[in-house]
Amino acid sequence: MTVWFHLTCGAYKRPEPFLAALGATSEVVPDRERLETEARRGLEHRRLPRLGGAERAPSGRARCRECRETIGKGDWRIRLVFYEDGRFSPGGFVHVACAGAYFGTADVLPRLRSSGAGPGAEDLARIEALLGEA
């Protein structure tokens, strides 16, 4: 089965095959250096490709996969997704403040910004503040 990704999504979500494809092509790839750097970060921090976006918790039932504490209703949380058998599957959540410990780096804002229908600019500023508090 063939699966297609935007270049940025491929670098973020499937870093190993992305780097292999990047090395095998002689095509001009826009923003090649940044994409390669991000893909290498995904290999260096093995959980980083699991980042699926940020959202406010609709209930107080989910538990953080890092600290195992409940994520309060209305609190910001980061969605986790796993790529298995050619598709993405939900994998739980982590507190924004637990992101650094879970992912091995707190530098997750570029990935949150590109995660589709995620938080707006004001919300990203709050998430950035939460990341800094950890």
Description:
The chain has 134 residues and is of the alpha+beta class. The protein folds into 2 domains: 1-44, no CATH class; 48-134, first zn-finger domain of poly(adp-ribose) polymerase-1, CATH 3.30.1740.10. Helices cover 40% and strands 18% of the residues. The protein contains 6 helices and 3 strands. A 3-stranded antiparallel sheet has the order 1-2-3. β2 (76-84) and β3 (87-95) form a beta hairpin. It is globular and about 50 Å long.
Short description, anyone?
This protein is of the alpha+beta class and about 130 residues long. It contains six helices and three strands; from the N terminus they run αααβββααα. The model has no long low-confidence stretch (mean pLDDT about 90).
**Named CATH architecture of the largest domain:** 2-Layer Sandwich
Largest sheet strand order: 1-2-3
Number of self-contained structural domains: 2
Major β-sheet profile = 3 strands, antiparallel
Mean pLDDT: 91
Percent of residues in beta strands? 15-25%
- Going by CATH, the homologous superfamily of the largest domain would be Zinc finger, PARP-type
What is the 3D shape? globular
Annotated CATH topology of the largest domain:
first zn-finger domain of poly(adp-ribose) polymerase-1
